[in-house]
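Recall that a protein's primary structure is simply its ordered list of amino acids. Everything else, from secondary elements to tertiary packing, is in principle encoded there. The following example makes that idea concrete.
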Amino acid sequence: MGTTPKEVERTFREAGAFLEGHFVLSSGRHSPKYLEKFQVLQWPARTEALSGAIAERVRGLGIETVAGPTTGGIILAHEVARQLGTRAVYAERKEGGTGREFRRGFQLREAERVLVVDDIMSTGGSVEETIAAVRDADAAVAGVAVLVDRSGGAAAKRLAGIPLVALWEVEIETYDPASCPQCAAGEPVRKPGTTPAAKERVR
């Protein structure tokens, strides 16, 4: 039996990766909850198990290469590729911050079947940028796989029919800063990854 959503949720909770507070996400939106994936990815055994669940579900897609966006996507791409017996590449932000591209000599063949992986999908922006980078190289996006779809399925609708594997779907509320109730209440906001998380409460 494959890894269930409940097991993925338990992995995040046990790793202290499900945080409560007042956070600004990479999209610029605010949220009272945050999934700190690196609290999970710092543990090779947990990363291996989650990546194995992805590999199990995509074996029928004929994957030749696994591609992930920096930064967490690098770890997942390497481990999923290892378990599939393929190679891994990663897409970095273009200079100026708009879109992603493959550098460091990474080459994709025309029509090469690529699996795009990422850790947490909120709006789907990083995934979409990586898809665009794959298509810019004339390769084919055979599927997308993420550890968590925190949009509750909304981001998946933007993938236009590309097969999606999400190990755990959860809808976590987000707000535009102008309508954020925590901002209105004067609660301090933090951007994850820029300050220590030692005082955060684990939900």
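Residues 78 and 88 are 5 Å apart (CA to CA). The two ends are 27 Å apart (CA to CA).
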